[in-house]
Amino acid sequence: MSPLLIIGIVLLLVAFFLIGIYNKLTKLRILVKEGWSGIATFLQQRTDLIPNLVETVKGYALHESSTLTEVVKWRNRAVGANTAGEQIEASNGLNRALVDFFSLAEQYPDLKANTNFLSLQGDLKDIEEKLNQSRRYYNGTVRDYNQSIAVFPNNLLAGMFGFLAEPFFQEEPGAGAVPKVSFT
User: Rounded to an integer, what distance in angstroms lies between the CA atom of residue 111 and that of residue 132?
Assistant: First the structure.
């Protein structure tokens, strides 16, 4: 066998190896984007629900405008977020504002009995459960992707082709819990 043929075969094997790494990293990056898309869908559903909740509460708690304003402020920031980091920050702020919002609702017995409010609250609870599932999926895909771009020899190829680490969806302590509202 000619030395030139052996060198050609070795170069071909190295090329296939590098193509395999590139394809694996690309697939993992696509999974991360898919995971983020799932989160974005539920975040959008939640932000769409907020105005209805605020309007329902407004009639009962007109003098509590600061709490309502805070919810609307964080909802608007969530709608205007362009990056994952901005969306995570807005989501955390909205979670804090919703806790205050539902604490406010506790002070109004007529509101707690309002069927529209109860329905919207149930919808929000369902969305929050789905959102938490999506966050877990997203964080799992981010973990796999970030691990893949960090290990040798993938890290060499990742650096050359611009594969950058993705942020985890991290909530503030206690912010991930659905606000507890008692109707007794």
Answer: 27
